[in-house]
What we know:
The chain is of the alpha+beta class.
Amino acid sequence: MACVFLGVGSNSDRERHILNGLIDINEHFNWVQRSRVYESEAVGFAGHAFYNLVVEGTTTLDVESVLEQCKAIEKAHGRTHGGPKFSPRTLDIDVLLYDDLVRESEPQLPRAEILENAFVLLPLADIAPMRRHPVNGKTYRALWQTYNRTQQLAPLKDERWLPF
């Protein structure tokens, strides 16, 4: 059984797409836990703010199958690929970690965004504070404590729309 951490985000009809994406993730992976939902500004383009969170699950799928399943869930919720990298998203699901696998080919694992974006690192630190980054060996709590907090990030005050 592999442990996977998935970054989930949306900036288009956010509550609907996050909720339905989580329902699908729960159907395809063995749900362990999720972080709080955070609202963050769009990065790399002018657009509506995102909702972001991290989900932990387990699976018997190999890493390629996990990546394919995440893309299929995105597509089922209206995500199109092939456009600009920085653009609005109905649903974005990134495989952040697959056990302690280090992979240089695309998509890179662990995802570089873990160390680059508050909306990935903080939710990961919330649910896996003592887990160590497989490359630099630092805990996610320690990484968050030393993170340059220039990105605006706020936890949602009301998550009653999420059943998980």
